[in-house]
Amino acid sequence: MNIYEMTRREFEKLPRRKWREIIECDSIIILPARFDWWGVVKYKVRQCLARLFRTTMPETWEVGHLHDSGFRRMDFVAVQGCKPICLLSGCSDVIHFDGIGGLGYRWLEKYGTVPQLIPPSAWNMDCLPSGLLRLWTGRGKIICGPALSSFEIFAVNADEEKDYGRVD
What we know:
Layout: H1 8-12, E1 23-25, E2 27-32, H2 37-52, E3 74-80, E4 83-87, E5 94-97, H3 107-111, E6 123-127, E7 133-137, E8 141-144, E9 150-156
């Protein structure tokens, strides 16, 4: 399959990576969650019933396309060249470039402390014919963090290739 010819449905049918599997790719496609009308209806009915019976509603959103935070969930497709590899997350409402804090891949091992200078990554984005957004970096490859509420991706260069495939 070629990402330039794929539809959103074809991207959604890709296999999921294994839990905590580290994926190396050269670009990522963003798949925002589809709007869940049935989930919205169920949530609104529960809200009305809670008001009617004077009970409290749970604090978290219970709508399939929304994260607990109220923001829409996203999934991500790892891509190598023009070929899709797998789906990466599905539960994230935010993407962190170069990790939470932007300190880079394995920053503590590299620097021993919070670095004073972080090499630039030059992140880029375009829009595929399907209307989905694709991200890539000028530094070489992307390492994808585990599927958590916050999705971390890291730009890595040739010096960091020895760490590929390593699972904590």
